Amino acid sequence: MNWFQKTLVLSITAGLAVSGFCAETINGAGASFPEPVYRIWTYNYQKASGTRINYQSVGSGAGINQIKSRTVDFGATDNPLKQEELDKDGLLQFPMLMGGVVVIVNVPGITTNQLKLDGETVANLFLGNIKKWNDKAIADLNPGVKLPDIKVNVVHRSDSSGTTWIFTDYLSKVSAEWKKDVGCDKSVKWPMGIGGQKNPGVCNNVQKIEGAIGYVEYTYALESKMPTVMLKNRDGNFVKPEISTFQAAGANADWQNAPAFYMELNNQPGKDSWPITGATFILIYKNQANKASAEAMLKYFKWCFTEGAQSATNLKYVPIPENVFNLIKSAWDKSVVTGGKPVNYKSEE
């Protein structure tokens, strides 16, 4: 590179810095459950602010590991951490979104929301206790529906996943056998079935395998055009997976009295509540090493809660209500510091 080229590069770089294009870059990793929304948020926020947000959808388990090893600025997880674990690592946790996990099927002749299942039957399908789609337990819930005499093929997540945590937490609540033999975790020893990597991998396998059943976040079911099923909720009503039933489940969340914002939304009461509903969470360090990065990160999260709420609704997620966002801001003000001082995320106000 000659003198003129070097001078030109330096001039362009300086001009970009002045114009705001050399803004902070914030790195995050974790849950695939909210990834469709995070994808839109990061794109729109960079256009609006110049700040670049890199988010890797690697699963909740990997997101927790990466924030604890300090390889990212924030981690994302669908299974919330308890207060003692957060305190051990100096982390703050807060919710970003709520949404529904749905059951998808590939059963010949069955269209979306035509099939009805209850919790016990879903558990027995994933336990391998129900082996054919025309089993009496399914037929009794679906009078008049023609069920084929084909094998049930279970598809589950192969990675450590918050979506799996939400789903297995639900099964543990509705099935004593599931709770005893399998339990609830980001990764469990599945009684049967084949694995798929992240939500798209589950969708792909269900699409390819006749007789398959799996579980994914709702937006992935919509994107892949996979048939979903209606589920019987705690009040005994069969409900469809849709934004209104996710909102009904989320309406019962008592965030005010949830230490570290720890919240389980599965199997909530309410005639319209979708029974498999979860929140997705962000993990950040209370003591932030870099002032500029900390300010840029909290400003980004603030924008997501306010300007980004409509994008979340459009993608069939439930935005965090304003009163809960006020609780989150209070937690930031109280706990997040850089150089011993609170992080300023309000300078644009």
CATH topology of the largest domain: D-Maltodextrin-Binding Protein, domain 2
Provide the domain count. 2
> How many DSSP E strands?
14
Termini gap: 44 Å
Percentage of β-strand residues: 15-25%
Uncertain runs: 1-22
Helix percent band: 40-55%
Strand/helix succession: HEHEHEHEEHHEHHEHEHEEHEHHEHEE
Radius of gyration: 22 Å
Helix segment tally = 14
- Classification by helices and strands: alpha/beta
From the spread of the alpha carbons, the general shape counts as elongated
For the residues shown, what is the average pLDDT?
92
Q: What is the subunit arrangement here?
A: single chain
Main sheet specs? 9 strands, mixed
CATH superfamily of the largest domain: Periplasmic binding protein-like II
CATH architecture of the largest domain: 3-Layer(aba) Sandwich
CATH class of the largest domain: Alpha Beta
Summarize this structure as a short list of keywords or feature phrases:
D-Maltodextrin-Binding Protein, domain 2; 19% strand; alpha/beta; 41% helix
Give a written overview of the molecule:
This protein has 349 residues and is α/β, with parallel strands linked by helices. It has two domains: 3-99 and 278-342, Periplasmic binding protein-like II (D-Maltodextrin-Binding Protein, domain 2, 3-Layer(aba) Sandwich); 100-254, Periplasmic binding protein-like II (D-Maltodextrin-Binding Protein, domain 2, 3-Layer(aba) Sandwich). 41% of the residues lie in helices and 19% in strands. The protein contains 14 helices and 14 strands. The strands form three sheets. Strands 1, 2, 3, 4, 6, 7, 8, 11 and 12 form a nine-stranded mixed β-sheet that branches. Strands 5-9-10 form a three-stranded mixed β-sheet. Helix 12 (291-306) packs antiparallel against helix 14 (322-335). Mean pLDDT is 92; it is low at 1-22.
